[in-house]
Amino acid sequence: MNQINKDYQRLPGSYLFAEVKRRQEAYEKAHPDQNVIRLGVGDVTLPLAPAVIEALHKAVDEQADASTFKGYAPDHGYDFLREAIQKNDFAARGADVKVDEIVISDGAKSDSSNIQEIFGPDIKIAVGDPVYPVYIDSNIMAGRGGDYNEETGKWSDLVYLSATAENDFKPALPEEPVDLVYLCYPNNPTGTTLNTADLQKWVDWANENDAILIFDSAYESFITEEDVPHSIFELPGSRTCAIEIRSFSKRAGFTGLRLGATIIPQELEIDGVSLLDLWKRRISTKFNGAPYIVQRAGEASYSEEGKAQIEEILAYYRRNAILIKEGLEEAGYEVFGGVNAPYVWLKTPAGMDSWDFFDFLLENAQIVGTPGVGFGPSGAGYFRLTAFNTYEKTAEAVERIKALNK
Ligand SMILES: *Cc1c(COP(=O)(O)O)cnc(C)c1O
C-alpha cells in the first residue's frame, strides 16, 4: 500500500507569515487610505551591484556561443568561485579553509535543511530558541522531532537553547548529551551575535563532547564590531567540530539568483568517516550544480569593484538598522540587535504579548513587523523589525513609533 512521509504532516504549518499577511490584509481592506509600512520583510530590496550585473550579462553572452558555452557545472562548484571564496572569506581573515573543502550550492536554505541527511536518524539535535525555522522543520521531516506540544511550542526530542535578554542572547551550553547543534550568528531573528570568546566556548564544548556545530553565517557581512567572528573557522579547534554554511543572499543580494556554499574541513569525521566525502557524495547524487552564470556573478561580488559596491549597499541597510534601534531606544523601548545584523529585536511593552504588539503597531502606527513568538517559545514577548525597507520609509516608521508615546 502506498504511503506518504507522515513526518511532513506533523509540521504545524507556516502559521507565522500567513497570519501576519492575513492581519495586514484585513487591516488594509478596512482602512484603504492608510499607508502601511512593512518592516517585516526578511528579503533584500536594493538591486544587485553593477559589477554583478555586468558579470551576469557577460556570462549570458558566453552561453550564446559554442566556443564558450557551459553545460553542467562541476558538482561541487567552479574553481574560480571556490578560490574567490577561499581567498576573501577565509584566508583574508586568517581562517584555515582549503578550496577543496568549499562546496557550492544554490543557497543556505537548501544546505541548512539538507545537511542533516548525512547524519544518522537517531541523533540528538539542539537548536537556538528563537530560531530560523528551517533547522527544526528539516529535522521534523526526517523524523527526529518526537511529539509537538502545542502548549510549550516545543518538540519532545529536540533540545532548545533559549536566548533571551536574561542571558544576553547567549544560550547556555546543553546539559544533556547532544550530537548536532545549529548555531546562527549574527542571529536571525534577534540580530544579536556571539563574540570570539563566546563562540570559542561552543567549539571547545563540541570537541570535548563529540558534538558537531552547524554554523550558519548568512549575516556575517553585517558585522560591524571588532571582536565578532565572521567565520567559525577563525577559531582554533573548529576544524574538528564545525560545518559552516554561507550565503550570497544577504551579503550580495542574491536572494533571487540563488548561491551559497557549505564548508566541511577534511579532518571532520564520525567513526573514521569523512563528513566532507559524505556531503560531496550527497551533492553529486542529488544536485547538478549551481548555474554557471550565477557562479560568475558570485565571483564578481568578490572583485575590488564588486566588493566596494556591495559595501555601499550593506551600509544603506546598516543605516536603517541603526535608525530603528536608536529611534526605538529614544521612544523608551528595550532594544537588541541591529549593530551586527539587519534585524532589531525589541521587548514588547509590559502587558502585551508578541501578537498584541503586532496589532497595536498595525492599528496605531500602520507598521507591520514580525511577532517574536513565531520564531520559537523564547521569542514570546519580543518583536522583530527589519532594515530592508527604504531609508525614507524606515525613517517615517520610526517617527510614527516615537509619536505613539506622546
Ligand atoms: C535568509 C537566511 C538564509 C537563506 O539563505 P539563502 O542562501 O537565500 O537560501 C539562511 N539562513 C538564515 C539564518 C537566513 O536568515
TrEMBL record:
<protein>
    <recommendedName>
        <fullName>Aminotransferase</fullName>
        <ecNumber>2.6.1.-</ecNumber>
    </recommendedName>
</protein>
<keyword id="KW-0808">Transferase</keyword>
<dbReference type="InterPro" id="IPR004838">
    <property type="entry name" value="NHTrfase_class1_PyrdxlP-BS"/>
</dbReference>
<dbReference type="InterPro" id="IPR015422">
    <property type="entry name" value="PyrdxlP-dep_Trfase_small"/>
</dbReference>
<dbReference type="InterPro" id="IPR015421">
    <property type="entry name" value="PyrdxlP-dep_Trfase_major"/>
</dbReference>
<dbReference type="GO" id="GO:0010285">
    <property type="term" value="F:L,L-diaminopimelate aminotransferase activity"/>
</dbReference>
<keyword id="KW-0663">Pyridoxal phosphate</keyword>
<dbReference type="Pfam" id="PF00155">
    <property type="entry name" value="Aminotran_1_2"/>
</dbReference>
<feature type="domain" description="Aminotransferase class I/classII large">
    <location>
        <begin position="35"/>
        <end position="401"/>
    </location>
</feature>
<dbReference type="InterPro" id="IPR015424">
    <property type="entry name" value="PyrdxlP-dep_Trfase"/>
</dbReference>
<dbReference type="InterPro" id="IPR004839">
    <property type="entry name" value="Aminotransferase_I/II_large"/>
</dbReference>
<comment type="pathway">
    <text>Amino-acid biosynthesis; L-lysine biosynthesis via DAP pathway; LL-2,6-diaminopimelate from (S)-tetrahydrodipicolinate (aminotransferase route): step 1/1.</text>
</comment>
<keyword id="KW-0032">Aminotransferase</keyword>
<dbReference type="InterPro" id="IPR019942">
    <property type="entry name" value="DapL/ALD1"/>
</dbReference>
<comment type="similarity">
    <text>Belongs to the class-I pyridoxal-phosphate-dependent aminotransferase family.</text>
</comment>
